[in-house]
Fold these 4 entries.
Entry 1:
Amino acid sequence: MKTLLLMKEIYLEAFKAIENFFVRRFFKGFAWFSLILFLIVVYAFVYRILTGFPFD
């Protein structure tokens, strides 16, 4: 839980320094998009492991 709180603090501090509204929104959207893509990859990898996919 401590790690999640530290990541949240880093996330919030990173966007406080950005003044331009458009740039701030773009990077926030990009951060969420990247997180969603990462979670999809983790899901696919775990699914393949659980279904016995042969990694040759």
Note: The chain has one domain: 2-50.
Entry 2:
Amino acid sequence: MYIAMIASECAPVAKVGGLGDVVSGLSRELEIRGHTVEILLPKYDCMRYEQIWGLQKTYENLLVPWLNSQISCTVWFGFVHGRKCFFIEPHSSDNFFNRKTYYGCRDEHLRFAFFSKAALEFLLKSGKRPDVIHTHDWQTALVPAMLYELYQTGGMENCRVCHTFHNFKHQGIAGKDLLLSTGLGKPGYYYDKARMGDDYNQTAINVSKGAVLYANFLSTVSPRHAWEVFNTEWGYGLGKSLYHHRHKFGGVLNGLDYEMWNPETDPYIATTYTADSFSDKSMNRQSLRERLWLRHESKPIVAYVGRLDTQKGVALIRHALFHALHKGAQFALLGSSPEEGINAEFFKLKQQLNDNPDCHLEIGYNDELAHLIYAGADMLIVPSIFEPCGLTQMIAMRYGTVPVVRAVGGLADTVFDYNYSDRPSAERNGYVFYQPDAKGVESALDRAIGLWFDYPGQFRELALNGMECDYSWNRPGADYVNIYNHIRHK
């Protein structure tokens, strides 16, 4: 099978969050299974070009219809950790991708609508005919609509589309200018609520809603989150449309890149180890303490790694920090926020706790340090308000670090409580709480920290249970192959 991934991110060359990890990890798994995968990306000026091998021009003067004219593009090709990637570079005064940033521009809807249009033009004019086009999140949600409304008669009638929602909070709300720019036109047609008309704004279209209608299959990144979209507010208004098309919607749990996150070979940790040499994990705990200026005492280290924003439960992270210290543990935090106010709050907290020998806050992101924290910590707190999938809890378990999580989305699909899960004891791998409040965090942390102090042998067994879990791309890769085959033969 030939699969074209059209996305705004691919780790590590252009990565902001988990989307980039999914695109690279799933593509690698599909190639291992014998399929041909090509990834189409914007050519951002801020990409990590050192991660691309053999970057060269592969298609010049690709003319993409836009407004009442055309924009010329150059398409570049290169390998990113073995993945075949095409980078689309538009030449226009709009400078869509020459802005020293991936996201956050006022014309965001037009930037990614142009990229989506250019990706389809490239496939058409280069003679590429994927069996399946896999699009990701709102940035490329316009591809299914344009494929079926504009490109079906141009030789691409056999292409099928799978669209994955990574975060329903961002849906791509736009106006008539997007329809006119892309050549879709017909505002009266697309503003129909049965197509792309936004349910809450009569003057807007919703490109994610368009994907719901036009894509052959729709997925989100965990089975639990698929349920939440129908039954809670976490569908952010798309639940009704998705329920109407529920016959082609399902949750596929994201996988983890087991080559990148592997304590047996990790070059960023002090001492490599496996489940059989689990005692060597203590060397990483010692190294982490030295790196973060934590005192060397017989205490568990509780960690948080990730974004600091409302979704991740900022207030609960802060509460977990102080409660862990109160219970005799140490706390290490690595993260930053897209919101200046939250960053300022945690910088202030860092200054407040600067002289505390049991606590260190690193405001920012450092990939090397993240690896060491996963290897050196004993527990990882993930108190998310909502979490479509989450990778941090999977990484923690891979490194024998016990996750303490709230039972939402992919966290509920991957972490099973040591005390209360109905699974066999060998499948229990962490601690779970349900209410997004201080009492919930305390109940789970108290049990985890208590087990570490009072029953170290049982805590070790729990950590080893996590290391035995398989959250690689093996099973999700098989699920997506089944989805692709299903839509190809419809």
Note: The domain at 278-468 is CATH 3.40.50.2000 (Rossmann fold).
Entry 3:
Amino acid sequence: MTFDNYINGAWQAPSTGRYAANINPARPQHVLGEFADSAAADVDQAVAAARQAFAGFRTAPPPQRAGLLNRLADLMERDRDQLAHVIVKEMGKVLAEARGEVARAVAECRFMAGEAHRVGSSGYSSERPGIDIVAHRVPLGPVALISPWNFPVVTPIRKLAPAIAYGCTAVMKPASITPWSSVKLAELIDEAGFPAGVVNLVMGGGRSVGQVLTDHPDIAGVSFTGSTETGSGIYEAAAKRLARVQLELGGKNPAIVMRYADLKGAAREIASAAFQAAGQRCTALSRVIVLESQADALVEELAAVTRAMKVAEGFAEGAQIGPMVSRDQFDRVMRYMEIGRSDKAKLVVDGRSTVNDPDTDGYFHGPALFDQVERDSPLAVDEIFGPVLPVLRVADPAEALAIANSSAYGLAASVFTDEPGLAGFFASRLECGMVHVNHGTASQPHVPFGGVKNSGEGAYSIGPSACGFYTATKVVYRLDRMPD
């Protein structure tokens, strides 16, 4: 079955006439469908539609914008099982996680529907009599929404919902290996009655679609979630024409364990945050920094939790870890496993795949745990983006903080401690956008989300902070003349 682009309220074949196969990572020989492989001409058409629609949609009243988002949320709830099944089939996530992703998308969509009513103006007193001064938040314009493959439903909604709430129009570009979820969302957008051209979907590669969108003079801003390397390129290209960016990039998120009694509970929280989506999350806990005096006991608890995790296709009963999303991701994780084995680190749990041939049996890789990892090891420094968890031992909180902040990334961190003073010490000094105390890196659908350093640039997404990307400020000075 073939799937076309969605442009100006209609499904349209790509100008290239080409389609790309989308495969099931649990069964790589199973083709899920053929999806549009687009080019610059398709991008131009979608941007023109968004530009034309923006002229009218920018003044759509808040109840209209909120109504569109609430109808979309209703439809996602209605089709939640179908959306979850698509996520499992094209991304590999286990069914429970896929259902959670859809529920999160609904929650974020509903929150932003409320935000449509809260776009306010600010009044200022004047130094001259008879002048009113009001600063208005106005829609930025047509925006490009470039989404990753690891959250193929919630991330597009996370970008689209605030765009609609604040009066922007959009061109969506999903990841090339997970386009089906965005097609399903576009079908629901169409059913919800969004005006033609307000939301457009163009599928294809990063160079043929993503780069063209970033460079397009009629795109006012680019919201991108993905690798730091790609995000840096988008930032550079957008800066050349002074377009706005919102970048959610990589992470090397520490779990810091310092004087914490419930090590069993900490291990459960850490393992869950480390291995959800097979570790393919920007907010995954990807290194553990633990006080030497507690290290042996924590590693024992982590090993027990890790060994008990069930690796299977997402639809299997009790499955906790599905396949890697692609052969490239599978091979990347295998390379880091070999790096760890060649280092001085101790391999506590070997998660290397037991499948005979990944290209027929699926890209499965179990969770792996390394202990006594050196602070300069690639395991401790690089964003692996897979189910590999290194443990680093430290002598005191100061050393833990120094190692945590030595990373080029600054997205999230978790701190496990029973001492309020230590919690405050780390919360105020960690160089990251989000700190979680005594639990994993789970965010909420109404709270700003983002990072610093190489983990992000621009306004944080989720919650009211998204307004900083999707709107501009217009200040109006008005002289009230006295009647003659």
Note: The longest helix spans residues 95-115.
Entry 4:
Amino acid sequence: MPAEAHLLKQVVVHTPGQEMELVSPENRAELLFDDILFVGHARKEHQLMCAVFEKIVGSPDTVLQMGDLLQEAFQVEEARHAFVDQLCRSLPEQNLSTVADELKQFSPEDLRRFALTGESNLAIRVQPVPNLMFTRDLAAVVRKHIIPLQTATKARAREQIIIDVILRYHPRFAQQSDKIIDLPDGVTFEGGDLLVAGPNTVLIGHSERTSFGAVMAIAHELFEHTSIEHVLAVDLPKRRATMHLDTVFTFASPTEVIVFPPLLDTHGFGYTVHLSPGREPGTFVTDMRPNLRTVLDEVLDRSLTYIPCGGTERLHQEREQWTDGANVFAAAPGSILGYERNRRTFDRLQDHGYRVVAAESFLSYYESSAFTPGAEKVAIQLGGTELSRGRGGPRCMTLPVARHANPAGT
């Protein structure tokens, strides 16, 4: 089964656009932003990241833009109607039902614009969705099953509707429409909390964005419908700095993890509940563990090397975790992207045999030749001066919908 660091096939992203221009000093906190991004620079940084993905994978169909997918889904009348009806139900205080008929008559392009920015020629306005840039949170893919976002915050309610419409109405996902795992009402889940660690093991963060009820519901569905045998529920501090599991733990290769060290400390956080299927259908066996590392060593079929985010000193570990040093994205085994500003994390990667190179230099070197995934270990530095101010790293900004089953894609 494709796991975290297997060679990428396709990834969904959203390059920041007009919706990001609508974040202001007055609404930024409500929209979950600590700062206001220079959108022009953020776009260039994001486009550079996408160009690296295309070069590593070697296919022009590697990167799928969320806005394009949504507009293509809106070509279906039923999709437009479903979007409007769900929107009216999710935002009753906006009184959108008074203009529902007009919204349903919008062209796919106009409805897409309204969905992303909240702007239209009608006498209404709703908040934009700047967090759409963090496509990882919209869903998680385990085998062929997709678990959509069930948001914990009102600011992301429209994103939940957007991903639902794309998954159910876009022809690209038609073969997976019966593989959507709908979570029960009352639980919350964001995709940054789920990592596929191996053929039969999934990690799920119990965070401020993902409730333990969601962990249990996902475990039940995975045990019933897939060959997953181990779900590790990792308890995280319920605060913004550790809002998802992937803010403290990401795979660089099948055997290497970049980790915020306190997650693995005996007296740190990371208390883990090991869930496995019971003898009777629908039942669990639970095993409480004080530390993620010990149970990972037991359930995985390989040993892991843990590379410390920020190096060996706690101050630097905390500083670089804050700026997403532990949130890297593996486009292939040992081919990763991270923010350049996390210098000490890159130093540790270099110690573990990675060639460290700037994104621009990487693309220039391979401008007229193909990159061979797996031929070397490379850690690619993305400037990310503006993107990092959004408080999400390269993994946060990527939703892989397909990877090769073989790690190197051969």
Note: The chain has one domain: 8-403.
